[in-house]
Amino acid sequence: MRRAVVTYLALGVGAVLILAPYLLSVQTSVKTPRQFAQQPPLALPDPVTGSNYAELVVGGHTLIPPLVITVQVVLVVVLGQLTCSVLAAYAFARLDFPGRDALFWVYLATLMVPAVAVLVPRFVLLSEAGLVNTFAGIVLPSMFGSPYAIFLLRQFFRAVPQELLDAARIDGAGHPRVLRHVILPLSRPILATLLIITVVTHWNDFLWPLVVTSGVRWQVLTVAVAGLQSQYQGNWTLVMAATTLATMPLLVLFAIFQKHIVRSITITGMR
Prior knowledge:
mainly alpha, MetI-like fold, 14 helices, globular, transmembrane, MetI-like_sf
């Protein structure tokens, strides 16, 4: 009992430390600038106001266009990454071809290369192709899978019992049908985890959209919020409202897929 009390107390303290910035952001976002300036930071808003959100939704500093562009970018990248990662992982896990393992480990070694190291070469390539400040320039570098996703899926595919695959082949199924009707239905938890990871990564991506775009035509949400922060440093209530709006979709997504994430952690043994 004592050990359980200590464990839950530590978890409670950790939860408070993690949730405190989000709660403070929400609390500040429903205050007026005068309340924020005159009251202590932890004081509850009195009265609660939605003027900051109204300004960001229908006012002169609307975040709707960057939000729409961000959703489009995330949808295209998620569809491309999951499709290419599933196909590549199946090939590395279940197909025999010369140099398979060597090619896989060489590809996996690219995880050690910092993203900043390839930022300039990537920009030069897209600039030569005329894709700077375009939607394609934002999504193309991230559409064709990632080493982490391929590694995770490969390890999961290799754990699928060989007997299931043999039974499918006896029934006349080729590799496409085996992948579609046997492998993928068993991989829903790990695919949900990769979906969350990919969405969060590219929803929060800031550096590459900042480098490859200019102006407001293809401005994503993170760049728009950063610009709002630099433009209105004194109006922290508006900035906190923008931060809260940018975070809410991720919280909703996690709430929907949390059961799959927990199950995938249990299955794969990830920490």
